[in-house]
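Q: Could you fold this chain for me?
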Amino acid sequence: MTEKQIMFQIGFKYIFFLLFLFFTIDSVGSGGWGFFSFLFAVFATKDFVQGTRMAEAYYRIKKKNDE
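A: Sure. Below is the predicted structure, expressed as structure tokens.
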């Protein structure tokens, strides 16, 4: 995987995090905490954690390669 592809994957995860966060907020605002609200919140959390872990691994590898 190239550096550009890794950065694209990280950005893609954060975009989906924001999308699912929006859906969560909209769903809770219109109907309260229902099944889909929890589902959107779980997906948003999953994407945020995966994006953060990928970014952390990328910066660790980059720092190691720079030394």
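A (continued): The helical segments are 3-31, 35-66.
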